[in-house]
């Protein structure tokens, strides 16, 4: 155990638990994954998982490199929030336009999104959600404390990115199960529309919160 002490901070278990509990709370990333996995299964959603994990990793890296400076970028956070709101509304609008049709279970659908598109959508979903930055900033500063080493921060960051990736892959794999797909085959469009509606609610909520700031700047 003494050999692990330099690698893992004393509060690592608390950090890992808080991070995993946060993953259990559905957010924009979850509903984006649900909408894609219901239609395109694992093949059309795995890239989203990688992109989301990469976006989380980017914010963790920013926290490690400059947690004190990050607190001062309030205007930057507001700009990211605005972009994130528009991004969620855009994705949600495309999902709510899903048409009713039966899902083919014997072959991959021809319109399965490319890996590049999946990756960019997942990355955009994570990066344009400033709550991720604030969450990791609070988590890695408040829980780990001022005496945490760079090595301990790095190990904790790698752990959290890995957990995000594994959890998201598990979610889309479950939704893509053949038995579940058969039950959902005639209702995929409903799931996509619900997922799209939830994403649009998230986006509209952010815009509503930013409205006073936008009006003040005009």
Q: How is this structure best described in words?
A:
There is one protein chain. Helix 1 (12-24) packs parallel to helix 7 (150-175) and helix 2 crosses helix 7. Helix content is 75%, strand content 0%. The model is unreliable at 102-110 (pLDDT under 50). It contains nine helices and no strands. The longest helix has 30 residues, at 188-217. It is an all-alpha fold and 218 residues long.
Task: Note the topology.
Elements: H1 12-24, H2 28-40, H3 46-70, H4 74-96, H5 115-127, H6 130-143, H7 150-175, H8 178-184, H9 188-217
Tags for this model:
mainly alpha, 218 residues, 9 helices
Provide a concise account of the structure shown.
With 218 residues, this protein is mainly α.
The termini sit apart by 58 Å
Helix-strand sequence? HHHHHHHHH
- Count of individual beta strands: 0
The main pleated sheet reads as: none
């Amino acid at each position: 155990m003494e050999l692990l002490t330099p690698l893992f901070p004393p509060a690592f278990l608390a950090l890992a638990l808080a991070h995993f509990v946060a993953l259990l709370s559905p957010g924009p990333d979850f509903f984006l994954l649900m909408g894609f996995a219901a239609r395109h299964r694992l093949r059309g959603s795995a890239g989203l998982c990688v992109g989301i994990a990469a976006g989380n990793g980017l914010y963790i890296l920013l926290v490690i490199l400059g947690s004190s400076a990050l607190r001062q970028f309030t205007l930057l956070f507001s700009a990211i929030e605005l972009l994130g709101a528009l991004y969620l509304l855009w994705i949600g609008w495309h999902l709510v336009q899903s048409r009713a049709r039966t899902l083919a279970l014997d072959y991959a659908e021809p319109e399965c999104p490319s890996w590049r598109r999946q990756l960019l959508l997942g990355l955009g979903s994570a990066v344009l959600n400033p709550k991720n930055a604030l969450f990791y900033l609070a988590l890695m500063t408040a829980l780990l404390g001022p005496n945490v080493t760079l090595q301990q921060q790095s190990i904790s960051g790698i752990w959290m990115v890995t957990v995000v990736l594994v959890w998201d892959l598990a979610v889309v794999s479950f939704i893509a199960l053949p038995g579940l797909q058969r039950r959902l085959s005639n209702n995929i469009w409903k799931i996509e529309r619900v997922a799209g509606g939830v994403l649009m609610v998230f986006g509209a909520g952010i815009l509503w919160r930013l409205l006073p700031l936008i009006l003040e700047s005009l």
